[in-house]
Structure formats: structure tokens, C-alpha cells
Amino acid sequence: LHVEVKKSETPWIAFTQPLPHSALGQFEGWINPHVVAGRFALSEMTATLTSTSLRTAMDLTAHSAHEAFKKPDQPSRWYTALVTACKASYDYVRHEAFSKKYLDVMTHPMLIYSNPLVILDGILLSAHIGADGEITVEEREMVPFLFDFGSRAYPRTTFRVDLVTLGAIDRYIERTDKRV
Fold first, then answer.
1. What is the pTM of this model?
2. In whole angstroms, what is the distance from residue 82 CA to residue 77 CA?
3. Phi/psi of residue 80, each to 5°?
């Protein structure tokens, strides 16, 4: 896990959309940066990573967020939190210890999987527009994001980032333990 923690006195609202299981595809678990070495077939882990994904459990994904009641001149902390977690995730799997010169000599299988996580010490809401056109807002403990990020130093990549409230971190860790 690559974690960024933010405390907020005001709610964060994640803008979500339904995401049925059929839309996830077989490689749901392989979106984030990862390293595979030795004799190891990705297909051996695909079912486990997909079935234990937070997006699979919730049937929704977020694409953006907003800090409620923040002053217009204040920067958006949700975006910088997700970017920071994604940078850490991206950099970790590119560490020298996981470079090709070291991995080529490995004889046993190894999987290094990165998972960006933002922990919110505050209230998390989700909002979406239903099929009937009505806006639904509900309190959540966890929301999975599909987050596109890129810069001069980081190629544009889509990350699966989990946003979890501090009160739900134990349940989230239990779920994450099943992935490993």
C-alpha cells in the first residue's frame, strides 16, 4: 500500500457511476503498476485480484471529487492526495531492487503489486445521477477511483486508487489481506 492521509473538517464528495462486474474485465487487478519475476503466470493471480478488488465489491467507481464548503481560493486537497499516492505507487515498482538486472537472475516467483490508498480522517460522501435523473448522495466508508494521472516525470497512466475513511481502515486492511 502507498498511503496518503488527509484530515478534513468538511465532507469530501466522490462523484461516482455504477460499474457492473461485467464491465471490469479479467484484468481488473492488473491496472496498477506491478512487477513480476521468475516463473509466474499473471493468470494465476487474476481471479483473486479481481474478486478482492474494492471496485468489484462495490459495483461503482469514482472519477472525481470535491471538498464541500472549501473556499474557492483554496487548492483541492483530494486531487493532490491521489496524485501523491499514485506517484509513490509508480516509483516503488521502479526501484532499483526491482530492475531487470536483478529480476532476471531470480529463480523463485515474485510479485510486487502496488496499491495507492488515500485515508480520509473525515466524512466521505458519494454522489451520482441515477437512471431516473435523480441525484443520490450517501455516506460511504470506502470509494474506489479510476484516476488518470501524468506529468513530465510520470507517463499518463490510469490508476485504481482507494479512498477510505479512517474509521473503516481496519475493514479495508482485512480486505487487502485477502489480496495477498
1. 0.81
2. 9
3. -65, -35
